[in-house]
């Protein structure tokens, strides 16, 4: 075993000159290091110098404090992935973690993962463990391994090894159409449906993770208490699978949908029976969401398949508790 093949050679000192960086990269290549881990400003140099060698390029993101915020993290991840890195080592926002703002931590990790995995780039999450309690470290680990549900995730993750170390694996089976997708369509549908170019679904995600080595009785699927919204959608097929003028923005939470949108103010509720998913359309705006009917069907599916359970994102989107009540009833009584 050649130990250097397990090294990420860190070339990260903030005051390094380009010449010093080049010398350090050259030395790492001579050791046959698996990667050189560089600052964002040094990625192009590292990619050029490692071309034709066994050494790959990784980089840090939001190093060393992790407080750049979601949009900055997302933009950096998109830029770095496009430059040809093998891995992105992002720093978790440990100030948010220490303050218990785990929704912020998870959203930032998810944004980076979305951008990186779209280009086939792996993501590692760096914890400043000296700044965290044992319980915070445990929670940070759980948040970091909450699994994106796309097929790309199992292609870039050794899930059979992860599953052995985890009591459960939560699949984020929402945002199956996410913030960079211009085709209006379902973002949290139970089953595939004809005409869906992306072909994503809860069922497909479960099957992908099971095939990758995750026991079904460790799998938790996800429901969406929020919606995804596309504007400028052609009035064809009630907007379903049409190219929009916008990408899939965050839409209203379910309580707001119930009060202001579902069969109100020009919006009509439609049901895709193949996908087992509702959606709204008013002639130009398309909204994908979960409702009590789709959640009951998800709960029936997970029981039939022997899955561990269901989770949701996120609690404040439905202060009426209509979706949570439907979920509880389906799990406890159906």
Give an account of the 3D structure.
The chain has 334 residues and is α/β, with parallel strands linked by helices. It is built from twelve helices and 14 strands. The termini are far apart. 40% of the residues are buried.
What is the element layout, followed by pairings?
Blueprint: E1 8-11, H1 18-30, E2 35-38, H2 43-50, E3 56-61, H3 70-82, E4 87-91, H4 94-98, H5 102-117, E5 122-126, H6 134-145, E6 147-148, H7 151-155, H8 159-165, E7 169-172, H9 202-211, E8 219-224, E9 228-230, E10 249-250, H10 254-260, E11 268-272, E12 277-281, E13 286-288, H11 292-305, E14 309-313, H12 322-332
Parallel strand pairs: 1-2, 2-3, 3-4, 4-5, 6-7, 7-8, 8-14
Antiparallel strand pairs: 9-10, 9-13, 11-12, 12-13
Helix pairs in contact: 1-2, 3-5, 5-6, 11-12
């Amino acid at each position: 075993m050649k130990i250097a093949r397990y090294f990420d050679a860190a070339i990260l000192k903030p005051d390094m000159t380009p010449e010093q960086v080049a010398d350090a990269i050259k030395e790492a290549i001579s050791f046959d290091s698996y990667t050189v881990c560089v600052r964002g400003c040094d990625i192009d140099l590292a990619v050029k110098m490692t071309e034709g060698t066994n050494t790959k390029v990784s980089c840090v993101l939001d190093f060393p404090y992790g407080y750049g915020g979601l949009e900055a993290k997302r933009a950096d991840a998109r830029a770095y992935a496009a430059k040809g890195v093998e891995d992105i080592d992002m720093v978790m926002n440990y100030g948010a973690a220490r303050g218990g703002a785990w929704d912020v931590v998870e959203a930032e990790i998810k944004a980076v993962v979305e951008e990186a995995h779209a280009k086939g780039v792996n993501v590692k999450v760096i914890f400043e463990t000296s700044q965290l309690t044992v319980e915070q470290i445990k929670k940070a680990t759980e948040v970091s391994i909450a699994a994106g549900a796309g097929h790309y995730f199992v292609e870039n993750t050794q899930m059979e090894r992860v599953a052995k170390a985890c009591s459960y694996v939560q699949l984020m089976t929402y945002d199956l159409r996410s913030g960079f997708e211009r085709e209006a369509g379902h973002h949290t549908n139970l089953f595939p449906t004809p005409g869906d170019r992306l072909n994503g679904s809860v069922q497909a995600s479960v099957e992908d993770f099971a095939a990758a080595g995750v026991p079904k009785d460790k799998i938790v699927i996800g429901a969406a208490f929020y919606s995804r919204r596309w504007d400028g959608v052609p009035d064809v097929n009630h907007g379903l699978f049409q190219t929009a003028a916008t990408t899939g923005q965050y839409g209203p939470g379910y309580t707001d949908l119930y009060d202001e949108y579902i069969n109100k103010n020009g919006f009509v509720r439609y049901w895709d029976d193949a996908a087992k998913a509702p959606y709204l359309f008013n002639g130009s705006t398309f909204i994908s969401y979960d409702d009590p009917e789709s959640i009951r069907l998800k709960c029936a599916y997970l029981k039939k398949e022997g899955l561990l359970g269901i989770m949701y994102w996120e609690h404040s989107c439905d202060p009426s508790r209509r979706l949570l009540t439907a979920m509880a009833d389906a799990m406890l009584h159906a």
